[in-house]
From TrEMBL:
This is DNA ligase. DNA ligase that catalyzes the formation of phosphodiester linkages between 5'-phosphoryl and 3'-hydroxyl groups in double-stranded DNA using NAD as a coenzyme and as the energy source for the reaction. It is essential for DNA replication and repair of damaged DNA. Its EC number is 6.5.1.2. NCBIfam families: dnlj, PRK07956.1.
Length: 717
């Protein structure tokens, strides 16, 4: 390297300029190695020395400070991870169906929803469900411009450079393709390519890959597209997102179009018109499964006509017009070595089976869930016997079942192999972590005993507190890089007041507490200077956060991501939400009614939220947190342009142009609430022929009434 050892005072202007150019490039390279590849070449101290030298030279020659000078870079180094892409249309998942009977119900449900159709027959497509990862390929003016993973369905990762290395994906489309098209489908790795890759790994004495799906996912999420290129990924097109002009009016026609445009499509996709035919094809594909060169985990049925798909619409995360009929799960026998009790964020005691390792459907399983204590005892959710009442004991030979990505479970025991001395398992009645009583609540509504035993320790239980923190920093909550499980446990255990993190607000005061401390985090093993700086940057970056992430991070029981999003959209700001939840604590009145009227929020969830806001310690944590963090306001999404948004509607009598289900789904999609009975709160009663007491009641109360045609005219459809 250039003049490294020469004192800065002795450098000429030309030498200084040269060295600044060198340092800019060199520091950028080290940033990339550190941040992007997790593979630094130099120590933190050496990195700092380079930076210092850059600063010194700049101080002496201010006129030479470069555009790309390392001293000008503020905050975190540019992230070399994948950019986020907001999907033009969300990427949804599919509902599952697990038996022939359920599949028939799916078909019958579609007929029921749509009611009488002029031609009496609805066509469906059936095709394999590919076990890969979904991908959205966006073409503008017939050129591939972006490729994104599904992510959380709303936002995915931009993997365009990697996708361009897959030869079977067209880079350009033919002239007849519309200006904007998003072709969606599945990226996968062929079983034969996977086997060849593993043979190569074995020959080199390197660890083997687990299965084609995970390997495909890992291969795609490589920062270096050359790695992706070497992995031979493949693609099947089966769906679409935004599209500026529809080239077909059926599912089948769309896939045929994709094929004509040069996309690979699955040859086993066919069109049928009855449940019997769909099931016949399902069993045909099931028989073919071992001979296919790609993993599949079921068969997807879709309503063929796109106009009917539009009428059927969506539930919150999946279309009503499709379902995935899954293949039965795979099972294997193994020995139950022990039962561990894990304590979760909400205090639930979950029994986890420790197993003699066993391969189930190509994956090595060492742990499996045992659900709860009744399950171990041989009792189902309503106290009825399961497994003909057989209980599960340590030492038993058990049957492990694994289906797709679901956690493996123990489904049965082999009684003939039970040791005589085996004793019934005694489920603990105290928390194995904090020793508090662990109890089974009685459900207020049903009067039944809850299946789950919970630690009553709350905030004093270390396990609950730690799990809370882990949840708080997790990917869909605050997503703080550098605060993984290991670090959370370290900070939680620390007794040093300048280091400890016991509740979420402590995360945000850490840097301030550290500034005045003698025990510096950077001197503690596992934390270097650069990693501490990165951690503080990651924390600072979250001082402003999307409202739904904030709500989700609070870890309120039953409030998952979807519910958090609903709440954020309904209340708009944290001030509004927090105040309303405290007010709703009376379990009646406007705030409580408003909460319950949110589509997708039932009473159990509503109760859990107001319970959370009744606990003074929770209020204190939230108040402290708000001193440090600002939740951004969310866009309130009521379909405000719809004339029925926010109105309560009752349908009565018979409807002639649509079925009751369809009317309800349509009204709800326009932001209305559909109720079953008429009260003072009802805004509109839609009455068809044969309407009786509900219509009378509406007139009595002076509620607006209309017939089906007037309703359709009102909603413009
Ligand atoms: S259709 C709106 N068809 O399964 C519905 N999905 O569980 C879009 N998948 O995220 C999905 N094979 O990644 C569809 N033939 C197929 C599929 C398929 C695999 C995946 C897809 C989706 C997931 C849903």
């Amino acid at each position: 390297m250039l003049n490294e050892n020469r004192p800065v005072e002795q450098l000429s202007e030309v030498e200084a300029a040269e060295e600044l150019a060198f340092l800019a490039a060199e520091l950028a390279r080290h940033d990339a190695l550190y941040h992007g590849q997790d593979a630094p070449e130099i120590s933190d101290a050496d990195y700092d020395a380079l930076k210092r030298r850059n600063d010194l030279i700049e101080q002496r020659f201010p006129a030479l400070v470069r555009e790309d000078s390392p001293s000008r870079k503020v905050g975190a180094a540019p992230s070399l991870t994948f950019q986020a892409v907001v999907h033009a249309r969300p990427m949804l998942s599919l509902d599952n169906t697990f038996s022939d009977e359920d599949a028939r119900d799916f078909v019958a449900g579609i007929y029921r929803f749509l009611g009488k159709l002029p031609d009496h027959s609805i066509a469906f497509t059936a095709e394999p469900k590919i076990d890969g990862l979904s991908m959205s390929l966006r073409y503008e003016n017939r050129r591939l411009v972006a490729a994104a993973t599904r992510g959380d369905g709303t936002t995915g990762e931009n993997v365009t450079a990697n996708i361009r290395t897959i030869r079977m994906i067209p880079q350009t489309l033919l002239a007849d393709a519309p200006d904007v098209v998003e072709v969606r489908g599945e990226i996968y790795m062929a079983k034969s390519d996977f086997a060849a890759l593993n043979a190569e790994m074995a020959a080199q004495g390197r660890p083997l890959y687990v299965n084609p799906r995970n390997t495909a996912s890992g291969s795609l999420r490589q920062l270096d597209a050359k790695v992706t290129a070497s992995r031979k990924l493949r693609f099947f097109a089966y769906a679409w997102g935004e599209i500026s002009a529809m080239p077909a009016d059926t599912q089948f026609g769309m896939v045929e179009t994709f094929k004509a445009w040069g996309f690979p499509v699955n040859p086993l996709m066919q069109r049928f018109s009855s449940a019997d035919e769909l099931l016949e094809h399902y069993h045909h594909i099931e028989r073919e499964r071992p001979d296919l060169d790609y993993d599949i985990d079921g068969v997807v049925y879709k309503v063929d006509r796109l106009d009917l798909q539009a009428r059927l619409g969506f539930r919150s995360r999946s279309p009503r017009w499709a379902t995935a009929h899954k293949f039965p799960a795979e099972q294997a026998f193994t020995r139950l070595k022990g039962i561990d009790i894990q304590v979760g964020r909400t205090g639930a005691l979950t029994p986890v089976a420790r197993l003699e390792p066993i391969t189930v459907g190509g994956v090595v399983v060492t742990n499996a869930t045992l659900h709860n204590e009744d399950y171990i005892r041989g009792l189902g959710n309503s106290g009825e016997p399961i497994r003909e009442g057989r209980d599960i004991r340590i030492g038993d030979m058990v049957i492990v079942q694994r289906a797709g990505d679901v956690i493996p479970q123990i489904v049965d025991v082999v009684m003939d192999e039970r040791a005589e001395a085996a004793e019934p398992y005694r489920f603990p009645t105290t928390c194995p972590v904090c020793g508090s009583h662990a109890v089974r609540d009685i459900n207020e509504k049903t009067g039944k005993v809850d299946a789950v035993r919970r630690c009553t320790g709350g905030f004093v239980c270390r396990a609950q507190a730690v799990e809370h923190l882990k949840h708080f920093v997790s990917r869909h909550a605050f997503d703080i890089e550098g605060l993984g499980s290991k670090q959370i446990e370290f900070f939680f255990e620390s007794d040093d007041p300048t280091l400890s993190i016991r509740t979420a607000p402590d995360i945000f005061t850490l840097e301030r507490r550290q500034a005045a401390s003698l025990t510096k985090l950077e001197n503690i093993e596992g934390f270097g200077k650069v990693s501490v700086r990165k951690l503080y940057e990651a924390i600072t970056a979250r001082r402003s956060i999307a409202l739904h992430r904030f709500i989700y991070a609070l870890g309120i029981r039953h409030v998952g991501e979807t519910t958090a999003k609903l709440l954020a959209r309904s209340y708009g700001t944290y001030e509004h939400f927090g105040a309303a939840m405290v007010e709703a604590g009376s379990l009646n009145g406007d705030a409580w009614n408003e909460l319950n009227s949110i589509e997708g929020i039932g009473e159990v969830v509503a109760r859990a939220i107001v319970e959370f806001y009744k606990e003074p310690r929770n209020l204190k944590v939230v108040a402290d947190l708000l001193e440090e963090v600002t939740p951004e306001s969310a866009e309130i999404r009521v379909a405000t342009d719809s004339p029925v948004a926010g109105k309560t509607v009752v349908f009565t009598g018979s409807l002639e142009k649509m079925t009751r289900d369809e009317a309800k789904a349509k009204a709800e999609s326009l932001g209305a609430k559909v109720a079953g009975s008429v009260s003072k709160k009802t805004d509109i009663v839609v009455a068809g022929p044969g309407a009786g007491s509900k219509l009378d009641k509406a007139r009595e109360l002076g509620v607006q009434t209309m017939d089906e045609d007037e309703w359709l005219a009102l909603i413009g459809g």
